[in-house]
Design a protein that fits this description.
The protein is α+β, with helices and mostly antiparallel strands. Helices cover 50% and strands 19% of the residues. The protein has 14 helices and 19 strands. A hairpin with a 5-residue loop joins strand 18 and strand 19. The radius of gyration is 46 Å and the shape is flat. The two termini are 33 Å apart. 23% of the residues are buried.
């Protein structure tokens, strides 16, 4: 169980009681304030959403009415007979009259081009007041707008060479058959002062955006903007989101009639909730005042409780220092008096238990020393007494094979070979068990170990020249480590020896030795392309006598990896492995920097 950090410090009960009262007061005030704050916030936001939706509707209507005037003038020009006849003649007849009609459409300097197009979108006649040739795919513009016969529509806004333009297209039709188009391009030019004044009328912090209905462009009427922080989605919804600066915003989007535009009005929530701040400040001031009063009252009351407790604390500290004769003299009839009596009884029992524990510790220490001596005697017996008969078995078996091999049948020779082989394995097992048991007592002799030369020397010991040519061994960069050289060499002997053994049946055995540095440690690895193993049994790798392959497949005692783990554990590192059957294995071990 974790300790409560707030109440487990050096604060006395006399200090904690006021703090506890303060906590409950603050909790009550906070709950009351939060409940009222969120109610007021909810009501304020609801009112703000109604306001922003009304503003977006008004803005949409205003832009729609402006667009209607433009659309009406375009439709009127498209219905002129002179324009129809000029279109039918390919721009040869009624040219002067048609140019006059096209020139009328230049209502102000924002109109940069007006053209008469045939049904395929090819230019037939261009207004003489046209100043700019808007470079865009006219067919794509007409296809997107899909204007019905005898009507006009304001198209979406295009970003052309850093400037913003939008088309107004009117169709010239006869019996619902479109014969051509009048297309006018108007530049979107608004001064920063005009935008600032307009948004100021909307309210503090308000921003107006215009977006194409297909979301292809987004602008604040001054310049094209990157993709918005939200997608308008349903036009009747209020959108809440965070802007790129992380500020909470709400917005309302409305389609603009007679156009391919969406008008978006955006407000920061902070501007809408400005009136809620005063209420929050009042709650904070009231809470601090009530908390201060509670602390003073609780401090006075707690003093009568903490004085006897201080005496108990001093007595407990004396006991902690070994003085079990300490007791307290508190003569009260309340709970503190009962606590003092119980404390005195406890002190007497603790003193008696301490006496008993001392005698038990002495007895257990003597028993442990005897066990250690017996273990040392056992190790000596294994090292000397067991090896003598084992050498005799091995020696007699070799003599039997050498002197009587020609008199034995095949089965007899096989049995003698097995005796020699198992005797040799038993001797190796005894050596490794002794090394494993002695490792627990061994003190580490730390020094700066250059790992790369050490790995090279291990490989030379393990592989004879003739065999070494079969293996392709790569040694990467191996940082030095502060470790026990002899033990780390034993680790490398076991791991590299395993890599050699388990990749020996491959046609092209490959072994890679490398390392990678981390913040507080260096991780070394030995990788091979041998038989590998199933990771489901990886937990058994580093136990004594645990083997994942039979003795017939690969020789071994099952102690080597257990020895590796014990050495790395003594160095404060870790050892683990990754492998896949028939695809090799990688063994890792780490050493602290």
């Amino acid at each position: 169980m974790q300790k409560n950090r707030f109440f487990s410090g050096r604060l006395s009960i006399q200090q904690r009681v006021p703090l506890l009262i303060c906590f409950f007061l603050l909790s009550a005030i906070t709950l009351y304030g939060v409940a009222n704050y969120y109610s007021l916030r909810k009501a304020t936001l609801a009112e703000g959403k109604v306001r922003i939706e009304t503003l977006s509707s008004q803005i949409s209507t205003m832009f729609g009415q402006s667009a209607q005037l433009v659309v009406a003038s375009m439709e009127n020009a498209a219905k002129q007979s002179s324009v129809n006849k000029c279109l039918e003649s390919g721009g040869k007849d009624f040219r002067k009259e048609t140019l006059a009609e096209l020139d009328k459409l230049h209502r102000d300097t924002t109109w940069v081009s007006v053209e008469l197009l045939d049904s395929g979108g090819k230019p037939v006649l261009r207004s003489e007041k046209s100043k700019i040739d808007v470079k865009t795919d006219i067919r794509a513009v007409l296809s997107f707008m899909n204007v019905p016969p005898n009507l006009a529509v304001v198209g979406k806004i295009y970003n052309i060479s850093g400037a913003m333009y939008y088309p107004v297209v009117a169709t010239i039709a006869e019996k619902d058959h479109i014969k051509g188009y009048i297309i006018g391009w108007q530049a979107l030019r608004v001064t920063p002062q005009a935008v600032s004044q307009f948004t100021h009328l909307l309210g503090t912090g308000a921003v107006l955006y215009i977006e194409n209905s297909d979301a292809s462009m987004w602008t604040n009427l001054l310049k094209p903007l990157p993709n918005p922080a939200f997608k308008p989605g349903h036009m009747n919804d209020i959108i809440a989101y965070k802007n790129p600066q992380g500020v909470d915003m709400i917005a309302s989007a409305k389609t603009v009639p007679n156009t391919h535009w969406v008008a978006v009005v955006e407000f920061p929530q902070a501007a809408i909730l400005e009136g809620v701040k005063g209420f929050t400040n009042l709650i904070i001031v009231s809470g601090l005042l009530l908390t201060l009063i509670g602390i003073i009252a609780a401090w006075i009351m707690s003093r009568n409780i903490t004085r006897p407790l201080n005496e108990l604390t001093k007595a407990a500290a004396s006991i902690a220092q070994g003085d079990y004769s300490s007791s307290v003299d508190i003569y009260r009839k309340d709970e503190l008096g009962e606590l003092a009596n119980a404390f005195n009884v406890m002190t007497a029992k603790v003193y008696k238990m301490h006496q008993d524990l001392e005698s038990k510790v002495t007895e257990r220490t003597a028993q442990l020393q005897n066990v250690n001596k017996e273990l040392e005697a056992f190790s000596y017996s294994v090292s000397h007494d067991l090896r003598t008969p084992l050498r005799a078995v091995n020696g007699y078996s070799i003599m039997l094979k050498e002197d009587y091999e020609d008199k034995l049948d095949a089965e007899g020779v096989r049995i003698v070979d097995n005796i020699i082989k198992n005797a040799k394995t038993m001797g190796q097992l005894i050596d490794e068990l002794l090394a494993f048991s002695r490792l627990g007592k061994k003190e580490l002799a730390f020094s700066n170990v250059d790992m790369k030369p050490l790995a090279q020397s291990v490989i030379e010991e393990l592989l004879e020249n003739g065999i070494r040519e079969k293996y392709r061994i790569g040694i990467g960069s191996l940082p030095s480590s502060n470790a026990d050289r002899a033990l780390i060499k034993q680790v490398l002997m076991n791991l590299i020896g395993n890599a050699i053994k388990y990749s020996s049946r491959q046609d092209n055995p490959v072994i890679e030795i490398g390392a990678q540095e981390e913040r507080n440690r260096v991780v070394y690895f030995i990788k091979d392309n041998g038989v590998g193993f199933d990771m489901a049994y990886a937990g058994k790798l580093f136990g004594v006598f645990q083997r994942l392959h039979s003795q017939e497949e690969f020789e071994g005692t099952g102690v080597g990896l257990a020895l590796v783990k014990r050495v790395i554990d003594k160095h404060g590192g870790e050892v683990w492995a990754e492998a896949e059957e028939n695809k090799g294995a990688t063994f890792y071990f780490s050493l602290p920097k």
